[in-house]
Design brief:
Elements (H helix, E strand, L loop, with lengths): L11 H11 L3 E2 L35 E4 L6 E2 L10 H5 L14 E2 L1 H12 L5 E7 L5 H5 L5 E6 L3 E4 L2 E5 L4 E6 L8 E4 L2
Parallel strand pairs: 1-2, 2-5, 6-10
Antiparallel strand pairs: 3-4, 5-9, 6-9, 7-8
Length: 189
């Protein structure tokens, strides 16, 4: 089901299981309400330099958690409008941003930033996303590392309560700059 919201919060049990393995320092794409770590990057962060995750060098942290927005958003607009035609067509966006100078990020941009940040083992970025093994970005970035395929569907939270099962299978990609490792299966706690 399409939803105009892009603040789908990671279930706490899933995050806790991964945090026990990876020991996260920062949540790289969150809001105050959805952040899983005390330090987070997001549009409502008080310190302006941490509001746009793409403007921050992620290598300053040892291990980052990343549950990125799955749509394309315009971060320069005050109301963070959707830019993808599918949401407009589905009636889930009030308007689209037509200003070409505004930046919009999609899942391939997040994967590229994670891959590049973790290059040469500078840091580790653990990213929750759909297991889109048929996409260009998966073959450019996710296949070159390792991680976990999640058994079952993740049930994301909205406003702190479970709302919807993910519409597709999910994976946890571990970008660490090391040679690729086989993906393993992870049971949802």
């Amino acid at each position: 089901m399409l939803d105009a919201r892009d603040d789908w919060e990671t279930p706490q049990a899933l995050f806790d299981a991964l945090d026990a393995i990876y020991d996260f320092d920062v949540d790289l794409a969150a809001t105050r309400a959805t952040a899983k770590c005390p330090m987070y990057l997001g549009p409502d962060k008080e310190e302006r330099r941490f509001q746009d995750s793409f403007a921050v060098d992620w290598r300053q942290w040892r291990t980052g958690w990343l549950n990125p927005p799955y749509g394309r958003e315009c971060f320069d607009c005050p109301d963070r409008v959707w830019r993808t035609p599918k949401h407009v067509k589905a009636g889930l966006a009030e308007r689209t941003c037509t200003q070409m100078s505004h930046r919009g990020y999609d899942i391939s941009d997040w994967a590229r930033k994670a891959f590049n940040s973790a290059g040469f083992a500078a840091c580790r970025i653990v990213m929750l996303t759909f297991a889109r093994t048929d996409t260009k970005w998966w073959h450019e970035h996710a296949i070159k590392t390792g991680g976990h395929f999640i058994k079952g569907r993740v049930k994301f939270l909205i406003d702190g309560s479970e709302r919807w099962h993910a519409p597709a299978p999910s994976a946890v990609i571990v970008f660490d700059g090391l040679p690729p490792k086989p993906y393993t299966t992870l049971e949802i706690p």
